[in-house]
Amino acid sequence: MLKQIKGLHHVTSLASSARDNNAFFTDVLGLRRVKKTVNFDAPDVYHLYYGNAAGTPGTVMTYFPFPNAAPGSKGVGEVGRTSFSVPADSLRAWADRLVTFDVNAMSQDARFGEDRLLFDGPDGDTFALVGVRDDDRAPWTGHGVGEDMAIRGFHSADMRVADAGASSELLNFMGYEQLDAAGGITRFAVPGGNDANVIDLDTTSASAAGQGAGSVHHIAFSVENRARQLEVREALMDTGYQVTPVIDRDYFWAIYFRMPGGVLFEIATNEPGFDVDEDSAHLGEALKLPSQHAHLREKLERELEPI
Question: CA-CA distance, 119 to 124, in Å (whole number)?
């Protein structure tokens, strides 16, 4: 069993409009845009990062907003709902706030003793705010969201799978332990993790998911540094997984592999962080380009959707 993985690092999804996506995560949910850059493989598309003040691993939601992208279709083999941690007594205030922004598909329920507020994003992506006591992560506050209700970071992510067996084995190997199970949901967590350390496996008989706007592209797990990442990579390969070489993503190093249930996994380092090319007081303000795309700046600044 691996001990290097501490929980979630980030979750990356697809969107159809950079402007609408940015407005939802900053104006509605009150997160900070900590980086405005471009997709390494498609530089004419933004890569937008939202999180707490520093973009601490375990708080960061990221998006590739492909203009006018067709919507995805929900099913197995994907991350279904992404959940954020908020103070336990703030859900009523959040419900009132989301109503003022005409947020879609709002409802409330409870899972494993925790109250949740469920809602959809602008592309039909599904989210939840989970009322949590004693989450001491420092939030970003702004846009009318005070510290008494601000998002602390991720709480968990749901993964829809047709068969939980092999996926459970992988999570166990990655250091996750089963905490509970009910109604087709099996909850796993990393003991002593980073507070974004819960994964819920949702076993369902749905058809395969189709990626598009509103779909999660991949989910990333956190390791401290490159040395720990290489240990994880070697262990995964020894177990039979096909893992990419280490890729420099400017703000972290990444490796990728696909889990048995079909979800694309990433293992990302906590180093070097989002302040490597931008002062911490001004994160996410300027367009930052990977070195291989620096020569495209004039064209990209002219053609990318203003946000």
Answer: 9
Domains of the chain in sequence order: 8-303 (3.10.180.10)
User: Which residues of the chain register pLDDT less than 70?
Assistant: none
- If one counts every other C-beta atom within 10 angstroms of the C-beta of residue 112, the result is 15
Calculate what percentage of the chain has a pLDDT beyond 70.
100
Q: Which residues contact 305 (CB under 8 A, 6 or more apart)?
A: 17, 18, 19, 46, 65, 67
The token pair at 295 is 């020569």
- Rounded Cα distance, 181 and 200, in Å: 9
Report pLDDT for 258: 98
pLDDT score recorded for residue 92 = 98
| CA–CA gap between residue 250 and residue 201 (Å, rounded) | 31
Instruction: Give pTM, 2 decimals.
Output: 0.97
Which three-class secondary structure state does DSSP give residue 230?
helix
Closest CA to 267 of 152, 174, 164: 174
User: What is the tens place of the pLDDT at every residue in 64-108?
Assistant: 999 999 999 999 999 999 999 999 999 999 999 999 999 999 999
Going by C-alpha positions, the residue among 205, 258, 199 that lies closest to residue 81 is 199
Measuring CA to CA, which residue among 113, 197, 189 is closest to residue 154? 197
**Cα distances (angstroms) measured from residue 137 to each of 26, 51, 53, 153:** 18, 12, 11, 8
CA-nearest of 262, 266, 25, 221 to 123 is 25
Q: Is omega for the bond preceding 57 within 30 degrees of 0, making it cis? A: no
